[in-house]
Fold these 2 entries.
Entry 1:
Amino acid sequence: MSVLKLPISLEFFPPKTPEGAEKLRLVRQKLYPLQPEFCSVTYGAGGSTQEGTFATVAQIQAEGVSAACHFSCIGATKDSVRTELATLKAMGVQRLVALRGDLPSGYGAGGEFQHASDLVAFIRAETGDDFHIEVAAYPEIHPQAKSPELDLQAFATKVKAGANSAITQYFYNSDAYFRFVDDAYKLGVDVPVVPGIMPITSSSQLLRFSDACGAEIPRWIRLRLQAYGDDVESIKAFGLDVVSDLCEQLINGGVPAIHFYTMNQSAATLDIVKRLGAA
Ligand code: FAD
């Protein structure tokens, strides 16, 4: 159990160079004292980062920490998924984050899986209970959803296909999370829905990224961040206040765990946990 007295997990993306891999190794060493329940590694849609993802997962496991491998199915075939599952099983991986993913524009759709629910059902049918399966959840609604109601139903379908738990897209409004969880439970979802927390360390990157992924930056946060301009220290101090407050609201509201999007950095996550531990 972490110092927060509730489980935490940490997310990384696979580095592209040996220097990046070494830097990430040092970041992990700084974060391991938080005693994460698991560390997850993202997976580029279409298998674009497969080698780096699997290598990072293997390194985390070799460090004695449980690793979760993200796994996206868009553009994949049943045969290719079967092969990758066998590889992960042979590596001793026990936890997957099963996703549809997004192909870069121009790739078309293709593949034998349409939605993450198809992948979850396939993994269950092929491998039984070998893997703990996480799925993605969107308290502020997936950007391609036809309607909020259909998005919620799609989430429930995905869970009922065999997921053990869910991790949310990041958000800065705890009401959206609590409402989403209440509504999902009314549809029969009975698995933990763990909030995904994105520390705020820079302004332009966050604002750009959020538009595309279905996360809203509230107006007051957006305007404050823009007003700081290039003043990185003020952005970090403000971000620490905002995100620690959010985590406190979530913890007081009874969340089952917290998942940190570390962005392969240690300082912001450590600062938030320290602030919360002291609170
Ligand atoms: P789905 O659950 O399939 O949903 C996608 C869309 O289809 C939604 O709009 C949904 O409403 C709709 N839908 C779903 N099922 C149905 C149905 N049966 N009928 C009609 N509509 C349906 N991306 C990566 O590329 N790599 C990663 O490692 C990665 N990790 C992530 C981790 C987390 C915790 C989160 C929240 C997201 C992550 N993503 C990652 C982003 C994710 O791949 C994208 O958000 C993608 O657009 C949707 O993937 P999904 O698994 O949520 O898809």
Note: The chain is about 45% helix and 15% strand.
Entry 2:
Amino acid sequence: MTSDHDLDLSRIDPDRVPRHIGLILDGNGRWANRRGLPRTAGHLAGEEALFDTIEGGLALGVEWMTAFTFSTENWDRSGEEVEFLMWFNEDLLTRRRDELHAQGIRMAFSGAFEDPRVPERNRRHMAEAADLTADNTAMTVVFAFNYGSRHELVRAARLLAEDAVAGRIDPDQIDEESMEARFWLPDMPDVDLVIRSSGEHRLSNFLLWQSAYAEFSFPGILWPDFDRHALVEAVVDYQQRERRFGGAVDAVDDREGEPTS
Ligand code: IPE
Ligand code: MG
């Protein structure tokens, strides 16, 4: 693994680093195909990319990074690939857990873990990693595993309905906060920047609510080739954008470049 000193942060404004970056890891299969390798070889190669990118996030001072490691739609892949991804997600946790812990990283998990298709050992190792790293403060890394945003939203709606029927909440009082309080990770902040590697321009049911005002980056890099340097490029580009959150264009910006008289 490369070390921090080769990372060029000179173009980064430390006051405008995205607080939460979402990573849609895409292109592992194509990376492998191009080398005449099985798709699983692409997933294996994606591990180094993920952990190098996490180190880049740490060096940048990013507070939250959420990596989409398995979606609720990924069950439609071949049985062999699904089985591999279940094993790999679990194996990766056990091998990398102590290293992340030593870096002060809190590991968190978001997804439908009660799904009977999720193996018990995955559930157990996710819980152990979350417990071990619960008090770490350097950065939170979320593994979005068996994650689907619509599933998360429907679940929150169901929990609200149950609370309303039981008289614990007045339907008139339901607001954004009461929805968010019923998400898988209630303390997850909004996403500032979503990066999807491989050049595909889709959100694919990833953090739909949390990305309402996110900026998007679609580097044409297959995930196994992504790294901390590619992350810095995405953040440099992000910092050149003007975020308005639905507000008006700043009047001062409007006059920029125009004659003053
Ligand atoms: C992403 O790469 C890996 C996972 C979501 C598990 P893909 O497996 O989607 O690779 P492509 O898109 O087929 O190249
Ligand atoms: Mg893909």
Note: The pocket of IPE (ligand 1) is lined by residues 25-30, 43, 70, 74, 85, 198, 223 (CB under 6 Å).
